[in-house]
Amino acid sequence: MGKSDLSSTCIAYAPSSTANLGPGYDVFGLGLDVFEDRVALSRLSTRSNRVTIRATDDNNTTSNSVPSRLESNSAGLVIKKMSIDFGIDYDLDVSITKGVPVGYGMGSSAASAAAAATAFNKLFNLEIDRSKLVEYAAEGEIASAGVKHYDNVSASVLGGFVIVRTNPKLEVIRIEPPEDLVLVIAIPMISVPEGKTGIARSLLPSTVSLGDVVVTLSNASMIVAGFILKDVEMIARGIHDIIVEPARRNLIPGYIGVKKNALEAGSLAVAISGAGPSMISFLKTAKDAENVANAMATGFSEANVKCRTFVTRPSSGARIAKTEVP
Ligand code: HSE
C-alpha cells in the first residue's frame, strides 16, 4: 500500500443476499446473515486517479478467484464511478476480504459493491442517502452480469426484504422480514464460469405469455403481502416461478431432487438463489432446518455433487466498522 494514515481509511461490511425469491426476477432481494464482504478503502496522499485493488478470499467455499483488475471488479467499478462523479482524484487503495462465495448466487459481487459504496461515502463525507448508494452499488453488477440489476445490491445496502422498481426511475422499498423466517442455503461445489450471471440471463425468454404474467404477478403479490403481514407461510406460497427457473434449472445438477427432498423434509418453499447455482429453502422456525439442510445435500449428492449447507436469517444492511483499526 502507498502512503496513507489511519484517518484516511474507512472500512465497511456488506452482507450476502438472495435475489428473485422465485417470481421476483430483478425485483425482489433479501439480505442474508450468512456471509459478508469487508472493504477497506484508503485515500493516499498522492493525486493521480490511481486505484489499486487487492482481494483475499476468506472462505473455503469456492475456488473462484476475485478479479483485481478495476473494470472486472464490482467494488472497483463503483469506486471508479463515484470518483468521477464527485471529482475525487486521490489515489485509492482498496482491500477486499471476500466472505461471500464468488459466483454461487449469494450476491457476492453486490456485497463488495455495496461495501465499497458505503466506505467511499463515509471516507469522503459525501452524505449520500441510501437509495443513491444503491444506484452507485449497482454499477458493480456490470462486472459480473454485464448489466446493472438492483435486487442484490439493494438487499446488501439496505438489508431486509427489498422491492425494486426501475421505471420510470429507481425506487427501492424495504420491508422488515418476519422474525420467524429461517433460510437454508445449499451451495453446490460445482465450477461456475466467469460471467455466470450474464450466461444465466442469456438463457431467459425474451417474451412471455399473458397467462404466465398473470400467474407470476399473483405469486409475487403473495410474497409482498406475506412480508407486509409477517406471514412466512404466505410468502412461501408465492415462491413458485414458471418463467425464469424453468429456463435455468438445467444449469443446476440435482435441481429437481434438491427441491423435492427439501419440501418433504419440511421446507415451505424452495427457489434458485439469484442466478444460481445455490438453492434456498424458506422455513418458519428453525426446528426443521437441519433436516432440510440434510435433505438438500442428499438431493445434490444423488446428482453426484457435493454441497455445503447453511442455516441463516435475514440480515440488516451494509455498515461502517466503528472501531476497527485497518
Ligand atoms: N436478478 C438477477 C438474476 C440476480 O436472476 O439474473 C443475479 O444474482
Overview of this structure, please?
The chain folds into 2 domains: 3-175, Ribosomal Protein S5, domain 2 (2-Layer Sandwich); 182-312, Alpha-Beta Plaits, CATH 3.30.70.890. Strands 1, 2, 3, 4, 5, 6 and 11 form a 7-stranded mixed β-sheet that branches. It has a 4-stranded antiparallel β-sheet with strand order 8-9-7-10, sandwiched between helices. With 326 residues, the protein is of the alpha+beta class. A hairpin with a 6-residue loop joins strand 8 (269-272) and strand 9 (279-284). The protein has 11 helices and 11 strands. It is globular and about 60 Å long. It is 35% helix and 25% strand. The model has no long low-confidence stretch (mean pLDDT 92). L-homoserine binds at residues 19-20, 25-26, 105, 149, 151-152, 197, 200-201, 274-275.
Brief synopsis:
By secondary structure, the protein is α+β, with helices and mostly antiparallel strands.
Q: What is the strand and helix layout of this fold?
A:
Blueprint: E1 9-20, E2 24-43, E3 51-57, H1 74-85, E4 92-98, H2 108-123, H3 130-139, H4 141-145, H5 151-158, E5 161-165, E6 171-175, E7 181-188, H6 196-202, H7 210-229, H8 232-238, H9 244-248, H10 255-264, E8 269-272, E9 279-284, H11 289-302, E10 307-312, E11 319-320
Parallel strand pairs: 3-4
Antiparallel strand pairs: 1-2, 1-11, 2-4, 2-5, 5-6, 7-9, 7-10, 8-9
Helix pairs in contact: 1-2, 1-3, 2-3, 2-5, 3-5, 7-8, 10-11
Bound molecules: L-homoserine (HSE).
L-homoserine binds at residues 19-20, 25-26, 105, 149, 151-152, 197, 200-201, 274-275.
